């Protein structure tokens, strides 16, 4: 494997201002077109998985349905609620959408190509800390959600925005830690150098624990099922967006789908070899399919592979409870990412004194680490219960009561039970138990009197 320090970097020395404009408009057109296709594709895929047709009326295969939805949002009456903080209320969706568009600026779509006679990389820009720039921009995007919920001056949007901030903090930590191992083995934070470091083997295979942690974290980062707690319709009535309408709502909606493409592009670049063709296509004619405009096709195909995974998850899994959501992030993903990072650091330290192949060591360690994590994930939780006799309200036989019983209204408001906790019987259920115990006692007394006679 070629060391990352010797890997070539993207050369932008031939770029001019009109080349920058062409690339920028190309990225903008790619994202907007992809969002329209993704909305249609998600509805069609979900329909097929749920044995229904999905959109199939407007245009061939229903392809014009997304265009109709976009025009509907554009032409709807724009309503601004009276009690909102007007400036922040309008600024919030702009922040969410603007930050979503910035990520693709450092993503390499392909190698050097000729655009109107100018040889330039299929990438808008790159710099030594490009991945840190991506993390900073994605973290800035949550300000749009938080300000949107707070400026609406309404309780449910505020709850949704608070959940969103907690969610980003929780899952961005795991995401960042999973990416550090990629930096260690690639020797760079530049996206073009990370792609060049995966010439022989993709990091998604050599660093499979970090790849799996990133997959879970990226779904939580973009608020998709089963992690869409900030938009939980059953609890928060669509969360932070409930007080928005028309194009202001559309900006939030657009930002969510663009962020889905962003995290998919990051996964492609850092773990799936970027724009490089998969094996055995990469071996055809000495890598001919890794030159010219062909790599753009492989990049887009890989991005849509991750998009399909998120559609699949939405059709398969139910929404988590908030405590399950936080337990997964803080008690499993972050410790696992830290443990894997320590192992990768040890491997890199050993390689300083030996000539052991990096790929072989990472594959063996990653396989063992993955088995341990799967066992811990599937290990059943231990429920501790103690049998304590307590007299029934009607004076009937003793019943076994769990030590995990608790008062749901102890804090003045109802609290749902956690796993292993049991709610006390409701007043109506307690009366039913008393009546049943009284009836059983009367029946036993009658039977005893009949026997005596």
UniProtKB/TrEMBL annotation:
<feature type="transmembrane region" description="Helical">
    <location>
        <begin position="361"/>
        <end position="379"/>
    </location>
</feature>
<feature type="compositionally biased region" description="Low complexity">
    <location>
        <begin position="435"/>
        <end position="446"/>
    </location>
</feature>
<dbReference type="Pfam" id="PF00146">
    <property type="entry name" value="NADHdh"/>
</dbReference>
<feature type="transmembrane region" description="Helical">
    <location>
        <begin position="292"/>
        <end position="313"/>
    </location>
</feature>
<feature type="transmembrane region" description="Helical">
    <location>
        <begin position="130"/>
        <end position="150"/>
    </location>
</feature>
<keyword id="KW-0874">Quinone</keyword>
<feature type="compositionally biased region" description="Pro residues">
    <location>
        <begin position="414"/>
        <end position="427"/>
    </location>
</feature>
<comment type="similarity">
    <text>Belongs to the complex I subunit 1 family.</text>
</comment>
<keyword id="KW-0560">Oxidoreductase</keyword>
<dbReference type="InterPro" id="IPR018086">
    <property type="entry name" value="NADH_UbQ_OxRdtase_su1_CS"/>
</dbReference>
<comment type="function">
    <text>NDH-1 shuttles electrons from NADH, via FMN and iron-sulfur (Fe-S) centers, to quinones in the respiratory chain. The immediate electron acceptor for the enzyme in this species is believed to be ubiquinone. Couples the redox reaction to proton translocation (for every two electrons transferred, four hydrogen ions are translocated across the cytoplasmic membrane), and thus conserves the redox energy in a proton gradient. This subunit may bind ubiquinone.</text>
</comment>
<feature type="transmembrane region" description="Helical">
    <location>
        <begin position="17"/>
        <end position="41"/>
    </location>
</feature>
<comment type="subunit">
    <text>NDH-1 is composed of 14 different subunits. Subunits NuoA, H, J, K, L, M, N constitute the membrane sector of the complex.</text>
</comment>
<feature type="transmembrane region" description="Helical">
    <location>
        <begin position="87"/>
        <end position="110"/>
    </location>
</feature>
<keyword id="KW-0830">Ubiquinone</keyword>
<feature type="transmembrane region" description="Helical">
    <location>
        <begin position="325"/>
        <end position="349"/>
    </location>
</feature>
<feature type="transmembrane region" description="Helical">
    <location>
        <begin position="249"/>
        <end position="272"/>
    </location>
</feature>
<feature type="region of interest" description="Disordered">
    <location>
        <begin position="386"/>
        <end position="453"/>
    </location>
</feature>
<keyword id="KW-1278">Translocase</keyword>
<keyword id="KW-0812">Transmembrane</keyword>
<dbReference type="InterPro" id="IPR001694">
    <property type="entry name" value="NADH_UbQ_OxRdtase_su1/FPO"/>
</dbReference>
<keyword id="KW-1133">Transmembrane helix</keyword>
<keyword id="KW-0520">NAD</keyword>
<protein>
    <recommendedName>
        <fullName>NADH-quinone oxidoreductase subunit H</fullName>
        <ecNumber>7.1.1.-</ecNumber>
    </recommendedName>
</protein>
<feature type="transmembrane region" description="Helical">
    <location>
        <begin position="201"/>
        <end position="220"/>
    </location>
</feature>
<dbReference type="GO" id="GO:0050136">
    <property type="term" value="F:NADH dehydrogenase (quinone) (non-electrogenic) activity"/>
</dbReference>
<keyword id="KW-0472">Membrane</keyword>
<feature type="transmembrane region" description="Helical">
    <location>
        <begin position="171"/>
        <end position="189"/>
    </location>
</feature>
<keyword id="KW-1003">Cell membrane</keyword>
